[in-house]
UniProtKB/TrEMBL annotation:
Pfam families: GST_C, GST_N_3. The lineage of its organism: Bacteria, Bacillati, Cyanobacteriota, Cyanophyceae, Oscillatoriophycideae. This is Glutathione S-transferase family protein. Residues 1-81 form the GST N-terminal domain. InterPro entries: Glutathione-S-Trfase_C-like, Glutathione-S-Trfase_C_sf, Glutathione_S-Trfase, Glutathione_S-Trfase_N, GST_C, Thioredoxin-like_sf.
């Protein structure tokens, strides 16, 4: 059975928990205690030398990085509805995975680390960039329900947690009505699973 190494309050881990739940994939969850530094222990560094969660273990296969895990799950279970294989559609979904790992991670993610976990970051810059990120998503969603392909894909799952958790970084979502509607659509997906703050 697949094993997910994760921690409860991580949006990156939540992307994977949500995908596993939406695809109804049976799996085991192993909690890693970041507060006590378990992710930097010798045992865990053998699983992920970066000392980060999430990590998915599938037999001898170890995959780190939430975006990579979303790709792995959808290809392994041949869910082309969640990750289309046609060139343009796939590239457009990948654009959002990259956006989640870069633009969202260096803005909304950082603001939340500061306000939710008390970490010392330049929160003003992070919030300012976060608002630009939200505006880009909101504008993109003005004439569609989903980020790409007229249906839910891993693009939505990759971007969703840290956008939904933006208020924990003291970035309000009210100015972005299309994002609020998109969040509602995601919450109505069969098999949807939540986490604290969403
Ligand atoms: N690119 C990775 C980032 C993973 C990541 O930043 N994980 C955080 C929890 S959300 C973590 O393990 N932080 C501990 C650390 O970096 O020391 C992904 O998308 O999964």
């Amino acid at each position: 059975m697949m094993k997910l190494y994760h921690t409860e309050l991580s949006g990156n881990c939540h992307k994977v928990r949500l995908m596993l739940s939406l695809l109804q994939i049976e799996h085991e969850r192993v909690l890693i205690d970041l507060a006590s530094g378990e992710h930097k222990s010798a045992n865990f560094l053998e699983i992920n030398p970066l000392g980060q969660v999430p990590v998915l273990m599938d037999g001898d296969t170890l995959i780190r990085d939430s975006q990579a895990i979303l790709v792995y799950l959808t290809r392994k279970y041949e869910r082309e509805d969640w990750l289309p294989l046609e060139a343009e559609s796939m590239a457009k979904v990948m654009q959002w995975l990259s956006f989640a790992a870069n633009e969202i991670n260096t803005s909304l993610f950082i603001a939340r680390l500061h306000f939710r976990f008390g970490m010392d970051f330049d929160w003003e810059t992070a919030q300012q960039k976060g608002k630009q990120v939200l505006q880009i998503i909101d504008t993109h969603l003005q004439d569609r329900n989903w980020l790409e392909c007229n249906s839910a894909t891993i693009a939505d799952i990759a971007c969703y947690p840290y956008v939904g958790l933006a208020p924990e970084g003291k970035v309000a979502l009210e100015p972005y009505p299309n994002i609020l509607a998109w969040i509602d659509h995601i919450k109505q997906l069969p098999g949807y699973e939540t986490m604290p703050g969403l």
